[in-house]
Amino acid sequence: MAEFDYVIVGGGAAGCVLANRLSENPANRVAVIELGGDRNAGRTIVKMPLAMVTFMAPALAFLGGPKFMSWFETEPEPGLQGRQIALPRGKGTGGSTNINGQIFIRGQREDFDHWRDLGNAGWGFADLLPYFRKLERFDLLADPKNGRGITLGGRPLFDQIDPKFHGTAGPLNVAQPRSINPMTEVYLKAAEQAEYPLTADFNGARQNGFGYYTFTQKGGERQTAEAAYLDPIRQRPNLTILTDTQATRVLVQDKRAVGVAWERDGHAGETRGREIILSAGSFVSPQLLLLSGIGPRRHLERLGIPLVHELPGVGENLQDHLDVTIEYRAKTTAPYGISWWALPRNVLHVLDWLFRRRGLFASTTAEGGAFLSTKRGVDRPDIQLFFCAAVGNTQNAAGFTGHGFLVHVCDLRPGSVGRLQLKSADPKEKPSIIYNFFRDNSTIDALREGIRIARRIINQRAFVPHLEREVSPGPEVESDGALEAFIRQTVGTLFHPVGTCSMGTTPEAVVDPASLRVHGMEGLRVIDASVMPSIVSANTVAATYCIAEKGADLVLGR
Ligand SMILES: Cc1cc2nc3c(=O)[nH]c(=O)nc-3n(C[C@H](O)[C@H](O)[C@H](O)COP(=O)(O)OP(=O)(O)OC[C@H]3O[C@@H](n4cnc5c(N)ncnc54)[C@H](O)[C@@H]3O)c2cc1C
Predict the structure, then answer these.
(1) Nearest ligand 1 atom to alpha carbon 541
(2) Alpha helices in 311-373 (DSSP H)
(3) I need a labelling partner for 240 at 20 to 30 A (CA). Which of 156, 252, 346, 369 fits?
(4) How far is the C-alpha of 267 from the C-alpha of 261, rounded, in Å?
């Protein structure tokens, strides 16, 4: 008899949800196998929202960031003059929610209806809204005193929220920013001056407009998947968590998954289960399928991996968001930053964090944003703007000296489709990843128009007292050609890979939408961001949590 009913590979966003939901019934024996360490949610570098800027700053590695990171990179990208892009993923229980930007936005109704229309019955917006509500504790409605005082367009935010789009009793706390830098207010004022609409809720009826972001935070601290889903139930006797353990392949007998092979401290082992669920994220879930002989025949034959089941779509259909940054210097010290003039205020920020969990350290600096359409006559947003009230990029602490601000411009549906393949049959070797940016149907138009819109906002009256100059790309970079060159030189991803084990019913699909079972296999499912058939028009964690909540119901036959 198998040791466990369910063996979950990966304790990240999806893995923690599954560990919780599948072990609710004490009769189910559940194991989680996780590459990184355990009990991360209580560490300062994880729970302090601002600390995310240290994860990608090599000079600040001594603060402990590398412990929570796995690094991948793209092949030289032909559309980016051969540039390679570094791709971080989170590690340890909590996965990428230990290091991510904490922004919580679901995506557009059209994204999920598109999934449904591709042949994924049960995955339309109306089908998924109950799961979005189930997973969420929307702080502003659950405990209105926490958001007291936040206004938008002169009215309390609370009065502008439609409760039918929110849950108030789920495990994951979704909160308004605890502290709002005056520059974020200036940015929203400027949007009004440029005659753009404001929105109180990017997760409401429509996404369009400018507003404050909502965050996976509680009481001013980051709330990871571990904190929300694992810590409250980790004492369950039917739950086993194996950490610092790298799954290396799925064990299969006659097209039935029967266990997982793994390595820990140079020792090999196996965990047997009635069902194996891959939740190792969009890079490693397909990698494990390929290492187990499940994937495109020719690719596996070339690497000498015995074919277990031919499935051409494994590792294909890779999608991500594209992002460029405009940087501005300020002539006031209103933005966050380090300077002699800001010293007293920064001391207060430290105290504010220590005693009230507010201020700079409770912020990621990206407190506000926007969803807009760059196409005339089209209402559905195709870009997202992030306003950072500091020059320190949300993923880079290097720029905190001095005062300035950034606008990130993100292409929500870039159209480029990449793929992931193995370089060898060695599970320790990172896979080959290519995104094919700006090839085939993918253009730079949305990013170029997005930069122009962002500049229009920053050039409004509200910014006049603060704006010194645009530093990058610089006001002279204005023509179509110059902007295109800037985009190709600097564009990166927002670290939102999806699609490599896509659900669907066509021959290219990897999992069945009705069960998330791998087509043609027994006892094997994939449940994580990799099953999205197309990228959502928002940061990807909310949709991943939702997939895992629904996935748990599918596993349990509910
Ligand atoms: C820097 C960064 C910033 C981001 N910012 C945001 C944001 O602000 N908002 C947002 O919505 N999204 C953001 N994201 C994306 C979001 O975090 C992911 O979409 C989400 O976490 C995906 O969940 P997942 O369960 O698919 O994978 P993950 O959360 O990455 O979990 C995968 C888990 O599998 C484990 N694993 C990997 N290989 C193995 C193996 N061989 N054996 C065992 N375990 C293994 C990993 O260690 C990890 O714990 C960001 C991501 C990054 C990296």
Answers:
(1) 11
(2) 343-356
(3) 252
(4) 11
Tokens of 262: 């793994």
DSSP letters, 255-310, are TEEEEEEEEETTEEEEEEEEEEEE-SHHHHHHHHHHHTTEE-HHHHHHHTPPPSEE
Residue 394 has pLDDT above 70, yes or no: no
How many alpha carbons lie under 13 Å from residue 353 in its C-beta half-sphere?
19
CB 16 within 8 A of CB 230: yes
Query: What angle in degrees, to the nearest 10, is found between the helix axes of 445-458 and 182-193?
Result: 100
**Ligand 1, closest atom to CA 55?**
1
Q: Name the helix (H) or strand (E) containing 258.
A: strand 256-264
CA distances to 10, 32, 264, 499 from 3, rounded to whole Å, are: 18, 13, 19, 31
219 has a pLDDT exceeding 80 = yes
- Going by alpha carbons, the residue nearest to atom 49 of ligand 1 is 95
DSSP letter (8 states) at residue 483: H
Count of alpha carbons within 13 angstroms of residue 355, beta-carbon side: 6
Whole-number pLDDT of residue 541: 98
CA–CA gap between residue 124 and residue 128 (Å, rounded): 6
Nearest partner of 249 among 303, 292, 295, 296, judged by Cα: 292
d(CA 216, ligand 1 centre) in Å: 14
CB 15 within 8 A of CB 247: no
- Active-site residue flag, 114: no
Amino acid at 376: R
The whole-number average pLDDT for the span 288-312 is 98
How far does the centroid of ligand 1 lie from the alpha carbon of residue 471, in Å?
Answer: 32
CA of 192 to the centre of ligand 1 (A): 35
- Pocket probe for ligand 1: among 45, 68, 85, 89, the residue whose CB has the most ligand atoms within 8 Å is 89
